[in-house]
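Notes continue from the previous slide.

Worked example: a multi-chain complex. Inputs as given:
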Amino acid sequence: MSKRNINKTAERAARAAALKAEQERQEKRRRLLLIGAVVAGLVFVVGAGFLVQNLRNSTGEAATPPAGVVDDYGIVVGDAAAPTTVTIYEDFQCPVCADFEEEIGEELNAGIEAGTVKVDYRIVSFLDRASKNEYSSRAMNAAAVVLDTAGVDAFKSFHDELFANQPVEGTDGPDDEELIAAATAAGADESKVRSAIEDKVFAQWIENATEQMSVDKVNGTPTVFIDGELAGSTPQEYADAIRAALG
Amino acid sequence: MKQWIGLVARLITGGVWIVAGAIKLPDPAGSVRAVRAYDLLPESIVPTVGHLLPIVEVVVGLCLVLGLLTRSMGVISALLFVVFIIGISAAWARGLSIDCGCFGGGGLEEGASSKYPWEIARDVGLLLLSAWLVVWPRTRWSLDAVVFPPRAGEVSPGPGDGEDWDVEAQHQQDR
């Protein structure tokens, strides 16, 4: 083998190695660019989704509360001079609340009647997903309409009526027509409540009331406070505490 | 074999993320309440986290199911599970009775909750699956293998030892 040939072979090998290195460098660049593009795409999707979620959440926007509420979200039933205040957070679709109402409702009504206690109802709505027709928020709206047009006594009998006839979770709750009928039976004027119930006029107030409950660190229904003090952690404890307060 | 386990890990964790995120998407106010109920974050960032989380969950889930950026997504997934485990444990330890909000709802629970141990066990399992993907991100039927084929000069393990890409085998045939 001649010297020239050896040189040629070495030259060829060097050129091949350089080519390979160049290819690898380009390959690496291509991968980095591709990864960058994919990451940028994902960041864009997350950012756009975040914006949409922000826009869809109207919580906190100005709302008109129904006439007669106290402290924006409280519906106070009973003698304002009653020595004890029982605050109850409830959702019309919450089965535990219905059980709680059945357990203590009558005794509580007697206490209201006697002037021993007043009840500050904090109605909220987070259980729309538990019915097929958003019963939770429609019922709360109807109750607000009854309060707004017919006063607190009508609200109270409407409230008791709804809990006594609560729809089973996962079914169709009463429709607007049935709510209007119940509102009329509770003492409201049909001509005044019909459009307000059908148009869900207090929708924004309902959202804000539910948000306020969360901000107030109340994370379940029913939750009961007696004179501002949390009255236990289970419906049974709440009922017992109310009985003790009723004397 | 590891690649098949990786595929299963991807589908399970990814599927859970997609479902968990998709259920929360329709109710942004509810997700915000769910985050707030843990009582761990300052109120100023609660809405941001509540709005961002479902989106991130869906995107991470989709990437895992498709096998796109598997290792990075495995890292994000594992970190999120660590955060959730801490959140649920903290709620449990402080005697908070909240719905974890893992699959929608959240925060506002009817009555008491005794589901914490089960929720933590589930999240630990999913955390382990995510960690698997961080350690062995090469999996069967992944988009990564198509979009990011191995470098031309990369030494490919022989067939049968389970670490080679499908695409790599294809390359060798081409050569």
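Summary box: Strands of chain A lie at 75-77, 84-90, 117-123, 220-221, 223-226, 229-230. The mean pLDDT of chain A is 94.
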